[in-house]
Amino acid sequence: MSTILDDLREAVGDSAVLVDPDVTRGYERDMMPTAPNGTALAVVLPGTVAEVQAVVRACAAAKVPIVPRGAGSGLSGAANAVDGCVVLAMTRMNAIVEIDQDNRVAVVQPGVVNLDLRAAVEKHGLFYPPDPSSYDWCTIGGNLSTNAGGLCCVKYGVTSDSVLGLEVVLADGELLRTGRRTVKGVAGYDLTKLFVGSEGTLGVITQATLALRPLPQAPGTTVAAFSALETAGEAVSRIVREGLVPSLMEIMDAASIAAVETHLKTELGAGRGCAALLLCQSDSGGEAAARELRAIEQVCRDAGADLVHTTFDPAEGSLLLAARRAVLTALEVYGALMTDDVCVPRTRIVELIAACEQVSAEVGLRVAVVGHAGDGNMHPTIVYDPDSADEFRRANVAFNAILAKGLELGGTVTGEHGIGKIKREWLEREVGPVAMRAHRAVKAAFDPENLFNPGSMFSMP
Amino acid sequence: MSTILDDLREAVGDSAVLVDPDVTRGYERDMMPTAPNGTALAVVLPGTVAEVQAVVRACAAAKVPIVPRGAGSGLSGAANAVDGCVVLAMTRMNAIVEIDQDNRVAVVQPGVVNLDLRAAVEKHGLFYPPDPSSYDWCTIGGNLSTNAGGLCCVKYGVTSDSVLGLEVVLADGELLRTGRRTVKGVAGYDLTKLFVGSEGTLGVITQATLALRPLPQAPGTTVAAFSALETAGEAVSRIVREGLVPSLMEIMDAASIAAVETHLKTELGAGRGCAALLLCQSDSGGEAAARELRAIEQVCRDAGADLVHTTFDPAEGSLLLAARRAVLTALEVYGALMTDDVCVPRTRIVELIAACEQVSAEVGLRVAVVGHAGDGNMHPTIVYDPDSADEFRRANVAFNAILAKGLELGGTVTGEHGIGKIKREWLEREVGPVAMRAHRAVKAAFDPENLFNPGSMFSMP
User: Fold this and answer.
1) Whether A187 and B416 lie within 8 Å, measured CB to CB
2) How many domains does chain B have?
3) Which domain holds residue B345?
């Protein structure tokens, strides 16, 4: 074992190779409590592309698995260590290499924190849309590897919609450049989007060229309260059907509302029998935003909302959004969380939430549903006592029952968190044997020795 | 040879297997005059997925190459036959399977004509954005295989931005389903976008699930005339820099303007020393569109436009757009056309157009430039006498000189037409040896016998 450690130290310097178990343990897991993890041989923190190449070559020669990771905010165990692996923590490579204001392009290293990039481009009047909940600490490299979403997706798409090109260190240590700096281009296969969302199984992303947008206007916000889940769902369907495209459309069910009210000591309507809150924003600016939100208000009223309120005061809008963002924190008071991530056709959201209520009753655990109603991506969150093996077991039953329901409704088992190490069987169930063969063929083409994040997403024969 | 023909007839019925050379010849080429083509063994017109599977299995057993094609409107030779191949013409599979208005999704077979889909979804108040110039006769299958663009891309993206999922017949005849019906989803690799733009080299697309948008408002149109190319380019850069996102932004150079004036017997300003026309639209509707076009007007004036005119009369807007769309037809009066397709960063458009003028002078041939200024995708078009071997040679020199300039400016050798059979060396030059190895590994993973469109995009060893 000493040879590979020597090689790693030569590759990146002694101080960038961590082997103290008390230290390396902090790099062996992401935020998903139910995902298994192994023990790393070492954690390596490369500072340059050349160092990444040297590490990959050393690992390839010794046939040591490599698990790339960013900040570890993931919710699928995709960044969890496997036994005897080298964890390649990309956080030191955190330079914003370039912001090209005139072409609306940024070039960044993978360790840049999402919020840091947002802040840097905002100074140039530009906008990097993808905004996963962990945006104040997750990294762009992690966002790329999971194809992260967020609240903005309903209008601006997911991470892959903002990526023009990548640099990736391949299994043989060679540096692959994909894509381009131009906004259009069809020269060759779209390898860029193959790597985005591949969860570190095909190579190590060392640089990304990102497309930026004009900074939108400060948003106006509409909140609508419904006494029945069905009417909230009807409002979502009608908003989509009428061609309204808000820049954000979030839904919270009764369990989420109640938890947030307790946590923030605020009043959102649970006491008045509010079964669902719908939160919409428009960033179109001025009269256009006012018109969009008026139309959304009208749809909500027509669908049967008990209360509809619109504000163009940024502070009030932020407070409403903060209530939505506080749901998971608010739920943590009651126990450990298992957060699901199903995405269904937008017309099926109500059925999914209703099924979650039923699952909750069946397993006898609190299940709160929040989600990105605008694209059907729901996060039913199961609350359980982490010290009770029985509750943990029941939580898992609920977790899987909700995934099954998502598939039954024509949806997917993961809208934005990824497969990782917790949904491998579900990937197979969703895509079927032919697609699994295609996945394994692609994996073998890029990583014939199966050294990049082995066992994440699927296992090789 | 009779065995394979027997198998094909058994697979699709006698009448769907064409072997008369006078008939098959019409299926052996696309619209690119300089691309080589071979002679097909047969043209097969399957009517069902099962028939496609049977044809692929028969060809695989006999090791006969398969060249899938749509309507043949391509401009790269990607759909051109190779000697002894089966041309798989997908035009009979032209059903619009489903339009799901509430979820804004359409499911279509590959032979659906782009315009037919546009018209069908418009009845539901929906919009399928990709609009290549040939939209009134090209097929969705061809659009998918080339990742077609069009005039709308500046605001709505290219074909791949509108695709949620595919069904693809693989080399072993199995049917692969990629993607999903939901607007978000990250289960597994993004195989959907790997197939989009793969020019028929990885499988045969038999169905697509497409994301639709709300039908935009009727557009307002602004036209600006510039007496110097530089000032037009400066206007484009400033429009991008100021965060304006028109729904269309096209540029025509002096040679294009002159040709259209002659062809349409109209007056666009060439006689008054107009060096470039910029044509912009906004489909944001009402006051928002008026505000956007006023801002664009102001930028054009500030940049030095001689004349700026805005209209919200749909008929006048259509006339202006018709002038832009007439450029290639207008040029055909002067000879055969070789249309280039480079995409450069938006700040480099002027340099590209200036280089085209210089190339024109050097080779002694007319070179007219039109293009999608909003995304830097330019179509310099070289006019030559098809009966003159010398002019043909000089046209090729010009064609390649423009590609080289595009790369030099940080661009790509193809923005939307594809590599096909005419730019294989240029693909290698653009992406380099590591990326070429990655391309060949992907190709081998999906098509180990190299039977799908062999020699298009790149050759296998």
Assistant:
1) no
2) 4
3) 335-419
